Amino acid sequence: xxxxxxxxxxxxxxxxxxxxxxxxxxxxxxxxxxxxxxxxxxxxxxxxxxxxxxxxxxxxxxxxxxxxxxxxxxxxxxxxxxxxxxxxxxxxxxxxxxxxxxxxxxxxxxxxxx
Length: 114
Prior knowledge:
- It contains two helices and five strands, in the order E-E-H-E-H-E-E.
- By secondary structure, it is an alpha+beta fold.
- Strands 2-1-5-3-4 form a five-stranded mixed β-sheet.
- A hairpin with a 7-residue loop joins strand 1 (2-8) and strand 2 (16-20).
- It is globular, with a radius of gyration of 13 Å.
């Protein structure tokens, strides 16, 4: 299983570490473990509300698509390590797989509560 470490720009939200398997996406892992990431489009890569930063472990995730890159350009404060959490699926989950995710401050994004 892969270890996914979530940290948050909003320091009122505690960091959390969860386990994931091949095929799991970052958005679902967060939501399934009580962490909220805004998501407006239903995970079809049609908005940028689920924007996150992959601080390490990018090589264990699916490759970024052209469509995802286009929507990241619309996100608040995009960086080279930006991804849409709904599009980041785990591709490798051996015992030393670690993925570190930084969730931007969600208060600046209008998004659906789940």
